[in-house]
């Protein structure tokens, strides 16, 4: 295990006695393969805001895009702390994941090209973007791109029930 690979810690109090901690390779595969995540952010007046969106797991972080005038972009200008969740709507199968972190704007042209290519690779030609000046340009207009490097990831396995926490060191 490298210094960059987090080790899962099983929360025994919330897990079946037969459960084992989720391994990071499995969690990372689930983060990569999930098609929909729910982004939770905070409005300037403190009320929560939750919305579904498409994400990409690239270089150890989740990436998503949004229009500059959308509620989530306006929230992130005031408070970049977010939670992204994905999983199944099943009680007894699958694994749900919760990613806590800070959303940071991505404006570098090379990084935006990587994100644009990844959207097409994962979601198909309907998600084609051109790289603009610090944004991705698509049918819906310019989109800001955000990167969320995880601070903490929780995995909630359901067969058997197991709650695993992965912690990440602060970014340099």
TrEMBL record:
Membrane-spanning parts: none
UniProtKB keywords: Oxidoreductase
Protein's UniProt keywords contain Oxidoreductase: yes
Gene3D superfamilies membership: Electron Transport, Fmn-binding Protein, Chain A (2.30.110.10)
Domain Pyridoxamine 5'-phosphate oxidase N-terminal as annotated: residue spans: 27-127
Highest taxon of the lineage: Bacteria
One Gene Ontology term of the molecular function aspect: oxidoreductase activity, acting on the CH-CH group of donors
InterPro entries: F420H2_bilvrd_red/Heme_oxyg (IPR052019), Pyridox_Oxase_N (IPR011576), Split_barrel_FMN-bd (IPR012349)
Keyword Oxidoreductase listed: yes
GO terms for cellular component: cytosol
Protein name: Pyridoxamine 5'-phosphate oxidase
Protein source organism: Streptomyces tsukubensis (strain DSM 42081 / NBRC 108919 / NRRL 18488 / 9993)
Upper taxonomic lineage: Bacteria, Bacillati, Actinomycetota, Actinomycetes, Kitasatosporales
